[in-house]
């Protein structure tokens, strides 16, 4: 299920990105997303990744990658260095200070694409409400003691954050178990994908 | 050893800058004629677009790989260079030359000064990293190569790759900079100064005029011992030597025979056999004085550079600490250069660039393929 959701997530993010643009992927992992974008959309790709093992995979795919911490790596770039900055699941999983990183990403990139798992999905709510347990859902399939997630947030949390910070949401896609979740997204969606910008 | 016979290589020589067309050095002084010792591996393709230049570290030479007739030890980067290796000689035409100021065939303090008919000694003008690269550039022109696929080197070799990037950016498609720095820190200069003072304080040094006489072997060996300490790490020394003791031949009060002591003595005395003390002075001075940023921001100098860059650092390298590689990466990022970096988890210290072959191979092999593809 997770693999299926990730695949739709990939496709959605790819659909947001224009051909021949420049893309910086923060926490790019094995550079699969960038690799696809290079092949399909002829983009100029740059990844940032902290895990040494992943660096070799990126280089093997021919994608330029920097072996750096996201927070540190981002701060060095000049304003509007990239057309897009992607944080695919990185915001909840690897970034220690999401607010700071979002602000920096909006400075360095013209548009920022963020995807994360929705903590307010109904199965999560039921598990907390009925069982009193930390939820395990198809998009958050981890136990509390062994999870990559540092932060848990819901779609509503993120939308409210953007409103407070005067960040414009240009596009958004909610993914459920069967592609798009349109009805009561904060209740039904497993993953939210947002493209944001700031003047 | 069956492939050994296939891998016999020879050093070749190229001479240029015959008076009155001497090479103008960065110091403003002129030098000529200049002879360059170099080796080549693999074959150039029709367009000569597959040429790779390897730039050696402080004590390296033109002999990067293969065997010289009668030798049982291969060149200094043999495990990285050859058929199917990182610098694949089935694909690339690889060139390596001894640096200006060196003592292995290229003009340096032990070469004959045509004006006196005796070795230059200290009459050789001071040389710089950029001078070394200008000489390499002449060699590349002589070999009729318009553009290098890459320039790659570690330590001082990385500085030369940086110099190519800042001074001849249109003549390279990429640069691979390993365990290097934009400029030396006070700590690095300090270690070099200890080495130089060690040589200069040896009475046999005699103001650099020792050719044909007793050489400053003690000073040079001591300098090398200090150098080798800086090339290793606490962890690698612990692993390699521990506190193990070996039988000592000449026992005296302070000779306990710790293996690390024997190792340093061995390194010191074997270095004296193959290296010239004056070259030590000239080359370390060139490294200490080098500043790729020329007192500005390196990113300004790299602005508009089209070449791709790969920067490799090693976690346990305290002589060229990872922050120095990060500074190079930062300049490339700000300049908008297509950059890849990797900080390899290694315990070998600065020596790692000659030892972490598997990781370096993975990075360099694929990086070069990408540079070729980009055209």
Keyword list:
heterodimer, A: alpha/beta, 9 helices, 40% helix, globular, B: 375 residues, Rossmann fold, Rna Polymerase Sigma Factor, Chain: A, 8-stranded mixed sheet, two-stranded antiparallel ribbon, 11 helices, 14 strands, 15% strand
Quick rundown:
The complex is a heterodimer of chains A (199) and B (375). Chain A has 199 residues and is an alpha/beta fold.
**How would you sum up the major sheet of chain B?**
8 strands, mixed
Named CATH topology of chain A: Rossmann fold
What overall form of chain A do the CA principal axes indicate? globular
CATH C-level category of chain A: Alpha Beta
Given the helix and strand composition of chain B, which structural class is it?
alpha/beta
Class computed from helices, strands and strand pairing of chain A: alpha/beta
Report the order of strands and helices of chain A.
HEHEHEHEHHEHHEHE
The number of strands of chain A is 7
Describe the SSE topology.
The complex is a heterodimer of chains A (199) and B (375).
Chain A: H1 2-16, E1 22-26, H2 32-41, E2 44-49, H3 52-60, E3 65-67, H4 70-75, E4 82-88, H5 90-93, H6 98-108, E5 109-117, H7 122-131, H8 155-164, E6 168-175, H9 185-188, E7 191-197
Parallel strand pairs in A: 1-2, 1-4, 2-3, 4-5
Antiparallel strand pairs in A: 5-7, 6-7
Chain B: E1 12-16, E2 23-24, E3 30-31, E4 34-41, E5 51-55, E6 81-82, E7 87-88, E8 93-97, E9 112-113, E10 118-119, H1 129-142, E11 150-154, H2 156-167, E12 174-178, H3 186-200, H4 217-231, H5 234-240, H6 259-274, H7 277-289, H8 298-302, E13 308-314, H9 322-334, E14 339-344, H10 352-355, H11 357-374
Parallel strand pairs in B: 5-8, 5-11, 6-7, 11-12, 12-13, 13-14
Antiparallel strand pairs in B: 1-4, 2-3, 4-8, 9-10
Task: Please characterize this protein's 3D structure.
The complex is a heterodimer of chains A (199) and B (375). Chain A is α/β, with parallel strands linked by helices and 199 residues long. Helices cover 40% and strands 23% of the residues of chain A. Chain A has a 7-stranded mixed beta sheet with strand order 3-2-1-4-5-7-6, sandwiched between helices. By secondary structure, chain B is α/β, with parallel strands linked by helices. Chain B folds into 2 domains: 2-185 and 291-374, Rossmann fold (3-Layer(aba) Sandwich), CATH 3.40.50.1820; 188-286, Rna Polymerase Sigma Factor, Chain: A. In chain B, the strands form 4 sheets. An 8-stranded mixed beta sheet of chain B has the order 1-4-8-5-11-12-13-14, sandwiched between helices. A two-stranded antiparallel ribbon of chain B has the order 2-3. In chain B, strands 6-7 form a two-stranded parallel ribbon. The mean pLDDT of chain B is 95. Chains A and B meet through helix 3 and strand 3 of A and helix 9, strand 14 and helix 11 of B.
């Amino acid at each position: 299920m997770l693999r299926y959701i990730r695949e739709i997530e990939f496709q959605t993010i790819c659909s947001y990105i224009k051909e021949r643009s420049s893309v910086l992927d923060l926490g790019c992992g094995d550079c699969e997303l960038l690799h696809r974008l290079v092949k399909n959309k002829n983009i100029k790709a740059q990844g940032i990744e902290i895990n040494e093992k992943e660096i070799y995979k990126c280089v093997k795919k021919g994608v330029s990658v920097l072996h750096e911490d996201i927070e540190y790596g981002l701060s060095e770039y000049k304003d509007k260095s990239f057309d897009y900055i992607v944080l695919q699941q990185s915001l909840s999983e690897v970034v220690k200070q999401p607010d700071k990183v979002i602000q920096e990403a909006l400075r360095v990139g013209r548009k920022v694409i963020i995807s994360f798992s929705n903590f307010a999905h109904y199965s999560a709510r039921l598990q907390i409400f009925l069982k009193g347990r930390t939820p395990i859902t198809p998009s958050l399939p981890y136990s509390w003691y062994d999870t990559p997630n540092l932060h848990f947030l819901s779609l509503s949390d993120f939308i409210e954050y953007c409103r407070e910070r005067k960040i414009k949401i240009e596009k958004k896609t909610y993914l459920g178990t069967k592609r798009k979740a349109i009805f009561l997204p904060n209740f039904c969606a497993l993953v939210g994908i947002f493209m944001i910008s700031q003047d | 050893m069956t492939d050994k016979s296939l891998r016999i290589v020879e050093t070749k020589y190229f001479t240029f800058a015959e008076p009155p067309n001497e090479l103008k050095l960065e110091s403003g002084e002129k030098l000529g004629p200049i002879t360059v010792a170099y080796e080549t591996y693999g074959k150039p393709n029709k367009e000569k677009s597959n040429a790779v230049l390897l730039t050696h570290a402080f004590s390296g030479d033109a002999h990067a790989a293969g065997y010289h007739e009668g030798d049982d030890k291969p060149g200094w980067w043999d495990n990285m260079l050859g058929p199917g290796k990182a610098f694949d000689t089935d694909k690339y035409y690889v060139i390596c030359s001894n640096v200006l100021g060196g003592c292995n065939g290229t003009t340096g303090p032990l070469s004959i000064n045509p004006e006196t008919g005796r070795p230059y000694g200290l009459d050789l003008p001071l040389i710089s990293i950029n001078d070394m690269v200008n000489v390499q550039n002449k060699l590349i022109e002589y070999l009729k190569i318009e553009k290098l696929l890459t320039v790659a080197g570690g330590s001082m070799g990385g500085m030369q790759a940086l110099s190519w990037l800042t001074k001849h950016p249109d003549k390279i498609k990429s640069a691979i900079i390993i365990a290097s720095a934009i400029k030396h820190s006070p700590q690095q200069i300090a270690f070099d100064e200890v080495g130089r003072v060690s040589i200069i304080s040896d009475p046999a040094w005699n103001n650099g005029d020792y050719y044909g006489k007793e050489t400053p072997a003690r000073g040079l060996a001591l300098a090398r011992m200090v150098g080798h300490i800086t090339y290793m790490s606490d962890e690698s020394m612990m692993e390699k030597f521990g506190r193990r003791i070996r039988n000592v031949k000449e026992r005296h009060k302070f000779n306990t025979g710790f293996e690390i002591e024997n190792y340093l003595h061995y390194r010191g005395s074997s270095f004296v056999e193959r290296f010239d003390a004056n070259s030590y002075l000239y080359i370390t001075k060139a490294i200490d004085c080098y500043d790729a940023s020329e007192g500005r921001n390196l990113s300004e100098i790299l602005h508009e550079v089209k070449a791709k860059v790969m920067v490799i650092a090693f976690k346990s390298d305290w002589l060229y600490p990872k922050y120095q590689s990060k500074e190079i990466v930062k300049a490339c990022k700000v300049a908008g250069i297509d950059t890849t970096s990797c900080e390899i988890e290694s315990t070998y210290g600065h020596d790692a660039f000659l030892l972490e072959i598997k990781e370096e191979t993975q990075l360099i092999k694929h990086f070069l393929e990408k540079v070729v593809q980009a055209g």
